[in-house]
What we know:
Layout: E1 6-11, H1 18-21, E2 24-33, E3 39-41, E4 50-59, E5 61-65, E6 68-72, E7 76-82, E8 86-89, E9 97-105, H2 107-120, E10 123-125, H3 131-146, H4 151-178, H5 181-193, H6 200-207, H7 211-222, H8 226-242, H9 249-255, H10 261-272, H11 276-281
Antiparallel strand pairs: 1-2, 2-9, 3-8, 4-7, 4-9, 5-6, 5-8, 7-10
Helix pairs in contact: 2-4, 3-4, 5-6, 9-10
Amino acid sequence: MNRINNHDTFGFKLKGEHQQRVAGIHSIGKEYRFNELYQWDGLKRNENGRVVFQYTLDGQGAIRIGEQLTTLKRGQAFFVQIPSDHCYFLPDNSSHWEFMFITLYGQEALYYFHRITEKHGHILDLDTNARPVKHIVHLIDKIQKTGIHHAYELSGYAYTFLMECMQYFEHDQNKVEKWPIAIVKSIQFMEQRYQEDLILSDIVNVSGLSKYHFTRLFHRTVNDTPIKYLTKIRMNHALELLQNKELTIEEVARNVGYTNANYFSKVFKSVLDVTPSEYRNSQFFMPVNQLFLD
Length: 294
């Protein structure tokens, strides 16, 4: 692979005692490591009282925790405290390691770190749509575009990350594990392909079931029809896109899977009782990134 080392990382040192009492972000970033010595020893670092969450996007890394050595592949994260007996590194047999990370501190950060690792361990499996992963992606993008303006904002993002972890490991993951695999596959398909012009048969085909069996099982599991569930996914993404006033309504429609902007507007109004233009331009609607729909 012909690529230069790429590091896009951010560190923070903002005043605010609440960060120690609640949570703060010490650093966050996305890195690509290859053909180099990359190694961090948890007993030889100066950032005491920190916890590190690092998620593998591609390639392969490794971490030793105590006597246990683990290879880290795509979709795997580690969660460790500094100081502690661990060492993560780019192994000799790996061509590259691409990852995202967030380093936190504060009493609540340490409290939830221990809650998560005591129950789920230090090595964690998460797909790219998992709440904690999406939060890091969103935060890096936000920092790149507008920066962080004060410690309260930073502390809010730190605590939100911890709550996203708790919701994922205590609720989302357990819920999905109890769902039939056919339903999990169909939902993952919709979440990954909502931008395409999907119809019910596309979703049914992924499940491997007959249309009749699938629709009954989906409704019994999710308490919704597949198309309504897909519509909710699309509408929530549309809400976020509508906050970018440089995008036309037609562009928003195409970005959430509707080839016809008029039909998109009709569906949007049936769900939210206003048209996309009215929602975007009205001062009486608070912009949100996600809306819970019945």
